[in-house]
Design goal:
By secondary structure, the protein is mainly alpha-helical. It has one domain. It has seven helices and no strands. It has helices at residues 10-28, 36-52, 55-78, 83-95, 97-100, 106-124, 138-144. α1 (10-28) runs antiparallel to α4 (83-95) and α2 packs antiparallel against α6. It is globular and about 35 Å long.
C-alpha cells in the first residue's frame, strides 16, 4: 500500500486501485465491444505508468499494475454485459472518487485526476479510426472525459 492511502478506509483504497481497470471497462466497453487492442493498450499503459508517470504516482501505478488484469477481469465478469446496464454502475463507483480525492495530498489528487483522464483517452484511442483519425467512437467519447469525477481544486 502506498503512503498516500494509509488514512483511507479499505473500500476507499480498493476503489482507488480499481479505478484504471474500471475506466478501461467503461470506455472500452462503451460500444458494447471491449476489443483486444483496447485491453492490451490499457495493460501496457498501466505498466508504462509505473516508470513514466509523475513521480508522485509511480508507486500507485506499481500497485495498480500488479492487480490490473485480475481487477479488469473481475469487473467484466461481475458487471452486466451491455454498456447500457454496465456503465451507469461503473459511473456510480467512479463518482465515489470525488469523496476520496479531498482526503488525499493535493498534489497527488491533482496528478491522479490528470493521469486517469489520460488513461481513459488512451484506451479510447486504442482501436478504430482511419489513419489515426476518428479513433474515438461516439459512444466512447461520451465517457472519455470522465465527467463523473470532478477535477480537484487548485
Amino acid at each position: 500500500m502506498i503512503s498516500e492511502f494509509e488514512h483511507l478506509s479499505d473500500s476507499e483504497k480498493e476503489l482507488m486501485y480499481q479505478a484504471p481497470a474500471l475506466v478501461t471497462v467503461l470506455v472500452a466497453g462503451a460500444d458494447n465491444n471491449i476489443d483486444k487492442q483496447e485491453v492490451e493498450k490499457a495493460m501496457s499503459l498501466a505498466e508504462l505508468k509505473t516508470y513514466r508517470s509523475r513521480r508522485v504516482l509511480r508507486e500507485y501505478y506499481k500497485e495498480v499494475f500488479n492487480i490490473f488484469e485480475k481487477t479488469f477481469l473481475d469487473a467484466v465478469m461481475e458487471l452486466p454485459e451491455t454498456a447500457a446496464e454496465r456503465n451507469p454502475l461503473i459511473e456510480e463507483r467512479l463518482r465515489r472518487i470525488n469523496f476520496i480525492l479531498p482526503k488525499l495530498d493535493k498534489k497527488f489528487a491533482q496528478q491522479f485526476y490528470a493521469s486517469i483522464c489520460d488513461f481513459a483517452r488512451s484506451v479510447a484511442e486504442a482501436s478504430g479510426g482511419v489513419l489515426g483519425y476518428f479513433s474515438i467512437s461516439a459512444e466512447e467519447n461520451r465517457y472519455v472525459s470522465l465527467r463523473m469525477i470532478r477535477r480537484p481544486e487548485d
